[in-house]
């Protein structure tokens, strides 16, 4: 009996010592200067966490449409349509349907954005990582904009364009209505009366404009995630992130 009690006491002491020793080791490890490899690994981890979270949020139903900060609307040049469409029976619903489809297309594109980000993150250099670590709250976001924007534009634009080309009432698509509107407006703007009135021609390509707005929303969300990881310890979900951004 005494032998068993003795063994139990020794076991408790050993376990307690191991626990304390582990804490000491972790403390020493946390105070150790970061290596370049750890900095790069930490930043890559942060970018993967941030981009995955952002793309996932926007890729869900109402990810764009239900968020007023990123919801994609028609450009200011469409004000004549927006202001007068209520005079047409069912016009308000028609307009909202157009905006809904545009945002649904962006939500669909966001689901496919993650591999584009991952490829960019994998190619990050030591110089890139150090600049991001020492940079502003959106330094990593700016890195991603510079390295992924064109590829993401190619991902988003076809989906936005397909939505715009879908036939609506009387077999006319949003794109066709837009071209008619801007065509008529440009005739007026280019006339003598239009020039005297100071009217400006509308030269905007609708699918390009809406694609840009979709990407603006995506990078806005990524910037929010980055800032949170930099400043909020709770957002640092791994030990490496805690060390790199502490």
Features:
single chain, 2 domains, mainly alpha, 246 residues
Folded structure, characterized:
This protein is mainly α and 246 residues long. The chain has two domains: 1-30; 52-166 and 206-245, no CATH class. It has eleven helices and no strands. The protein has helices at residues 2-31, 36-59, 79-84, 91-110, 114-122, 126-134, 139-165, 174-190, 192-197, 206-231, 239-245. Helix 2 (36-59) runs antiparallel to helix 4 (91-110), helix 4 packs across helix 7 (139-165) and helix 7 runs antiparallel to helix 10 (206-231). The longest helix is centred in the first third of the chain and has 30 residues, at 2-31. The protein is elongated and about 70 Å long. The model is unreliable at 5-29 (pLDDT under 50).
The radius of gyration is 27 Å
- Main sheet properties: none
Mean pLDDT: 80
Kindly give the count of domains: 2
Helix content: over 70%
End-to-end Cα distance: 51 Å
Q: State the shape.
A: elongated
What is the succession of H and E elements?
Answer: HHHHHHHHHHH
Topology:
Blueprint lengths: L1 H30 L4 H24 L19 H6 L6 H20 L3 H9 L3 H9 L4 H27 L8 H17 L1 H6 L8 H26 L7 H7 L1
Summarize the structure.
The chain has eleven helices and no strands.
């Amino acid at each position: 009996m005494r032998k068993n009690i003795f063994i139990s006491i020794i076991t408790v002491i050993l376990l307690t010592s191991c626990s304390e020793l582990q804490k000491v080791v972790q403390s020493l490890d946390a105070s150790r200067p970061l290596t370049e490899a750890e900095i790069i690994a930490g930043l890559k981890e942060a970018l993967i966490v941030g981009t995955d979270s952002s793309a996932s949020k926007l890729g869900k139903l109402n990810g764009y449409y239900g968020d007023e900060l990123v919801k994609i609307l028609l450009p200011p040049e469409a004000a004549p349509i927006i202001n007068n469409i209520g005079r047409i029976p069912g016009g308000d619903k028609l307009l909202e349907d157009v905006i809904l489809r545009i945002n649904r297309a962006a939500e669909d594109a966001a689901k496919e954005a993650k591999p584009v980000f991952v490829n960019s993150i994998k190619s990050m250099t030591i110089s890139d990582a150090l600049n991001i670590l020492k940079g502003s709250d959106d330094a990593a976001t700016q890195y991603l904009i510079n390295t992924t924007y064109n590829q993401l534009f190619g991902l988003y634009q076809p989906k936005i364009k397909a939505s715009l080309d879908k036939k609506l009432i009387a077999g006319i698509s949003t794109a066709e209505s837009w071209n008619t509107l801007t065509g008529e407006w440009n005739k007026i703007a280019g006339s003598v009366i239009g020039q005297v009135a100071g009217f400006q021609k509308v030269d905007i390509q609708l699918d390009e404009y809406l694609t840009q707005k979709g990407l603006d929303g995506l990078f806005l969300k990524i910037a929010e995630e980055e800032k949170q990881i930099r400043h909020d310890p709770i957002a640092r979900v791994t030990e490496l992130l805690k060390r790199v951004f502490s």
